[in-house]
# Entry
Amino acid sequence: MEYAKRFEDLRLKAEPVILGIESSCDETAAAVVRGRRLLSNVVFTSAPEQAKYGGVVPEIASRAHTDAIGEAVEQAVREAGIQKTDIDAVAVTYGAGLLGALLVGLSFAKSYAYTLGVPLIGVNHIRGHMAAAYLADPQLRPPFIMLLASGGHTAVIATHTETEFEILGSTRDDAAGEAFDKCARVLGLPYPGGPSVERLAREGKADIEFPKMFRGNGYDFSYSGLKTAVINYCHTKQQKGEAYSRADVAASFQAAACGALAERAVAAALEKGYGTVAAGGGVIANGYLRELLAQNCAKAGVRLVLPEKKYCTDNAAMIAAEGLVQYRARNFADLSLNACAHIPLGKKGKQ
# Structure
């Protein structure tokens, strides 16, 4: 019998205890939720080691996950103040991400769920970022606009129900997070690029005219032109032997990159008649963007739901939160569930 079939007649609990496990990149994380209430959140990172190489080295990440996964889960259970037998389901990221890294967390989750005799829930990492909004506001209910901005995805999404959404617009080339990382490299800033650009931008002025994103119809984005403009500006100055302010470049880039995100999210809410904008993904940890979203939403009379910064970057709390959504939908996985390096967000339309 397939493992998931064992739970076809499972009596669902109103507030199940769900263990979440995340290992898609360089963070080894575990968290426990009871319903929408977060009980614990543990994150171990190999980022300092990765920084020596200017980015994530998959083999180093996989080894770090192998060393840390057991301790992360044990600590999360302990800090949650529960017993292992209290766990009603195990949710784990199965994609997208680094295959070797994903397999560490997925293999551990399978064995943990099987040993406890509870459902296994496979979580799309991107859906996890979206579900972090439910931790920020446990009373949040669809419909609302979701602004997704991460290293691999950038999109404006109309959330109809917890499991159904409509992509109104997405990036046509680079994602917002990619653009931040590439800007950091051209400015000679250390990994991770996003926080480095934000820190440098605080010292500068946004007085350089960079392209303000894609000007076509709808809610699509294009960061390729902005990225190229930053590279060309710096290279031209260097070739001419002219001095320029790296801080001003960072501030100007950040203003152009974040301005489009805030504008499109609020515009979508107004067009749809939704009273709430929520956000998720690593780029949402950017302080300038958070302030801009708050200002634009307040001006438009739209409520804003922002996860704490620590729940915007990779963590297991968001995986457990999405695990609750899939638990309620009875979307349980078999032990044959495999890791996927790439999971497309989807085409425009209902998902």
Summary: The longest strand covers residues 37-45. Confidence is low (pLDDT under 50) at residues 347-351. The longest helix spans residues 246-272. The CA atoms of residues 159 and 191 lie 33 Å apart.
